[in-house]
Amino acid sequence: MNRPKVVLQVSSSIDGRISFMPNSTMFSPIDNSLKPFTLKDEDWKYFDKTVKSLHEIDFYLEGSNMLISDIDKIKELPEYSGNRELLYQDYLPEKIINREGRRTWTSVVDGRGRFRNGYKAYFDNPETYMIHLTSYNAPQEYLAFLQREEIPYIITGKEKVNLTESFDKLYNILNVKCILTTSGGKLAGALIRENLLDEINILFSPSIYGGFQTPILFNSPDIEVPKILPNKLRYIESHVFDSGSIWVRYEVIKK
Q1: Does residue 4 sit in helix, strand or coil?
Q2: Which of 25, 196, 206, 216 is deepest in the core (most CB within 10 A)?
Q3: Within the chain, which residue ranges are assigned CATH 3.40.430.10?
Q4: CA 29, 34, 35, 37 torsion-angle sign
Q5: Which CA distances in Å does 169 have to 35, 129, 175, 233?
Q6: Which pLDDT tens digits describe the chain residue by residue (255 residues)?
Q7: How far is the C-alpha of 31 from the C-alpha of 214, rounded, in Å?
Q8: DSSP states of 88-126
């Protein structure tokens, strides 16, 4: 396998919803009336600790919708008037790649260049550093901003990030061996449709959210026989918590 192993770790309601409502991010406040329907902290901590103990993770990956919603206002950046060619190539400064003490990467898939707060991750954890996976569709001012902030990025895909090509670069250039993502929805849907997921861990809470537009576990193109078919899974293990939450672990059978 000439790419990193990719593991999904995500929580969901029994009906497969990964948030209470549309356009929610990991930073969205939770109304007090919804708190009884959230996972118990001890269940999530056990789930999180156990999944991470099973793998030697060196790359943490999130989808941009986990960080900024489609209705959030995008931070304005100065226009770029320099050489465009200097922007539309991988930006991997040696001093960041070889940063002393860095053991992992923290990453966002952001093909449209919307996540612009300059977060570098190492302030929270000195053993990691931020890197963006972006596309040739990203605005010049966004790429220039990342370079000014010394935030590395890998660029693939004309309209959106080419995950297969990005993972190939991560494996061959940065020596990444195992990716963990906690993003369901569009990112998980893209990963499963592109045959890039190797293991799935879902912590189901004993609740039903419903909703017509509420994000789901795998938001992906519909089945299109014979071009797009379902994915078969191989059961590994499961764990039932006293709260009624259930962790299920599956291997994705390769097509």
Answers
A1: coil
A2: 216
A3: 1-58+177-255
A4: negative
A5: 41, 17, 9, 27
A6: 789 999 999 999 999 999 999 988 777 888 899 999 999 999 999 999 999 999 999 999 999 988 888 888 899 999 999 999 999 999 999 999 999 999 999 999 999 999 999 999 999 999 999 999 999 999 999 999 999 999 999 999 999 999 999 999 999 999 999 999 999 999 999 999 999 999 999 999 999 999 999 999 999 999 999 999 999 999 999 999 999 999 999 999 998
A7: 16
A8: SS-B--HHHHT-TT--EEEEEE-TT----S---STTT-T
In whole angstroms, what is the distance from residue 57 CA to residue 43 CA?
21
Q: Which fold has domain 1-58+177-255?
A: Dihydrofolate Reductase, subunit A (3.40.430)
Cα separation, 171 vs 165, in Å, equals 10
Q: How far apart are CA 106 and CA 124, in angstroms?
A: 11
Burial class of 177 by CB neighbour count within 10 A (0 to 12, 13 to 18, 19+): middle
Give the pair of three-digit tokens for residue 188: 């998980």
d(CA 55, CA 11): 18
Q: Amino acid identity of 233?
A: L
Structure tokens at 135: 């596309």
Contact of 240 with 43, CB cutoff 8 Å: no
In angstroms, the CA 62 to CA 132 distance is 10
